[in-house]
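To close the section, here is one more complete example, presented without commentary so you can practise reading it yourself. The ligand is adenosine-3'-5'-diphosphate.
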Amino acid sequence: MAFERNAQHFGGYVMQRPHIGNISGVPLDQKTCDTWDNIWKFQAHPEDILVAAYPKAGTTWMQEIVDMICQEGDAERCRRAPTYDRHPFLEAVAPKPVPSGLQLAENMAPPRILKTHLPVQLLPPSFWEQDCKVIYVARNAKDSMVSYYHFQRMNKGLPDPGDWCNYFSSFLSGGVTWGSWFEHVLGWWNAKDHHQVLYIFYEDMMEDTRREIEKVMRFLGKELSEEVLEDVYQHTTFQAMRENPMANYSSIPSFVMDHSISPFMRKGIVGDWRNQFTVEQNEMFEKEYKRRMEGTGLTFRTHL
Ligand code: A3P
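Output:
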């Protein structure tokens, strides 16, 4: 992978937390903003599959499931490269000489499995023009917030999250990178009525993973035997992915992602917010949640 291939270029390099700009009011890495025109003009292929999610919703889990389905259960082929090299992350721009998500995608023959955290209004229009299949993963806001906080602590490719109290306010007001959780989940929820979008909940995946894997399989127009489906399941459990260097982000150098601060494969549960939210924060959250979500028809579970 790019980071490993180019490790010598990082000798003595001190990773700086990124500057944040915005595109149409959505906070994004300044490097992404600088190359936005090219991202917007990205040409999707009709057979490309896009995995979209707000950060920390279980994107990597879904990518692994989709890859296993596309490779018909061949786990070895899914170990061909780390997640970030197998499935270009469209809007990701790392410091040179690491290739951007766009460069990776453009150098890969379609059909590709692509990843994005972009809110629906910022998705390059060719995905809609080509009627691509999109799998959107949504996770309840409380667990997303906690997971994102710990991820920002360990990942220097994102802004320093500061203390939990400030992070809580920043997340609720949509000030974190990729913007408002509310706008993200609602925007994609509405898009599913007009496009080929399969909307999947992290909590449903946790409740019955095999059922959700089958949903994805049918959406992708695949027919896999019970045996192969079981292989997909076994390869994508939390434990299997945590131990898989091609899925657990351990190949990113520790000056970027420091798993000793918080591992990428952290807990993988529903309801961890209870260990982080104060009673007062929970009350504030519930008030704001009601204001933003009531009447939308979109509901989430915060425990199973
Ligand atoms: P936690 O931090 O709550 O543990 P993303 O891939 O969108 O960055 O999401 C990462 C979150 O998904 C992390 O949540 C991670 O542990 C969880 N996750 C990744 N693979 C998983 C799996 N196979 N089963 C359950 N959760 C998984």
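Once you have examined the tokens, check your reading against these statements. The first strand starts at residue 20 and ends at 23. The longest helix spans residues 279-293.
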